[in-house]
Structure formats: C-alpha cells, structure tokens
Design a protein that fits this description.
Layout (H helix, E strand, L loop, with lengths): L9 H22 L4 E5 L1 E3 L8 H10 L5 E4 L6 E2 L1 E3 H11 L6 E5 L5 E2 H9 L8 E4 L7 E2 L13 H16 L1
Parallel strand pairs: 1-6, 2-5, 3-8, 4-9
Antiparallel strand pairs: 4-7
Helix pairs in contact: 2-4, 2-5
C-alpha cells in the first residue's frame, strides 16, 4: 500500500477513548477521586496542525488552489464539527461546578465535507470545489450523542469566518 493510501481503523479512536475511561474509572475506584471526562467532536479553529479538512481547505484557497472534496465510492464523510471557542467557553463555565462523569461536547448537526468546503468558499468567491474519488477508506458517518444542556455560543458559520480571518492574518 502506498504512503498516499491510508486506512484509519475505526477501532483506534474507540480504543483510545476506552483507555482514558478505564484509567479514570481506576482512579475513581481506587482513590475515590471524582473525575470529569469531556469528550469533544471534531474541533476547528486556527491551528498549525494542517492535516485536517478545515485548515487544509482554507490554506489551499489562500494559495489560489481549488479545494478538493474527496469521495469514496461516491460518498463523502459526515462529522460533527464545533468551533474551538465553544468548547473552551464550556470548559470555563464548568470549572466552578463540581462536575463528574462523562460529557459529550459536540454540535447537533452532521456536516458533509462538501458542505464545509462550500461554507469556506463563501470567503473565496473565485474558488470552486473539485470532486475526486479517493482510495482513502473512512467511516461514512461519525457522530456523538449531543448533550442537551450544551449551547453553542458561536455558530458554525461564524466559527468558519473567524478561522478564515485568523489564517489570512497568519499567512499575510
């Protein structure tokens, strides 16, 4: 298999999450320590880790290249995305509470790759998405059960705008 073709095991994320949960349970059972375990969906915002959909799309557009929507067997992935400022604000609010257990921090909506790219392209009106078939095998839909008490203070569209603005400033 070439370096360009990568397969992500769906068990990798589950194994990591299970390991963290088991470690937390061990400390709770052994030492009586009550732990809070927030689980976040895909966070986005300005980040120098360029291996993700949102930063890669923005950077391609800033370079004058059309972004690519990869599809596998005619389908594209759908994920929950949350602007990082929402998660940060939520954690700050929780600091004063005696919070224990597991809490999902995620948006309620699933976003397809093409929807995200089209939203980003609102800030790059001369660019068009390019659709390509990919050898990359991925889970078509991936989501968490949203916490009914979680509120997004910065909606997805505003988060994308802020992220594009941050990359523009950084790259200039």
């Amino acid at each position: 298999m070439s370096d360009e073709v990568k397969v992500i095991s769906p068990l990798a994320a589950i194994t990591f999450t299970a390991s963290v949960s088991m470690l937390n349970k061990f400390y709770t059972d052994t030492y009586g320590i009550k732990l809070y375990e927030p689980r976040c969906c895909n966070l986005f915002g300005f980040d120098l880790q360029y291996s993700r959909l949102i930063p890669n799309t923005i950077l391609k557009c800033l370079e004058g290249k059309n972004p690519i929507v990869y599809q596998f067997e005619g389908q594209e992935g759908a994920r929950q995305y949350l602007y990082v400022g929402n998660a940060t604000y939520h954690f700050i609010l929780r600091m004063d509470e005696e919070r224990t257990g597991i809490e999902n921090i995620c948006s309620k909506k699933l976003w397809k790759s093409s929807e995200i790219i089209i939203e980003i392209l609102r800030y790059f009106p001369k660019m068009l998405p390019q659709y390509e078939e990919s050898d990359f095998v991925e889970i078509t839909e991936q989501s968490m059960i949203p916490n009914p008490n979680f509120k997004e203070f910065i909606d997805f569209n505003e988060g994308i705008k802020r992220t594009v603005d941050d990359y523009r400033m950084f790259m200039s």
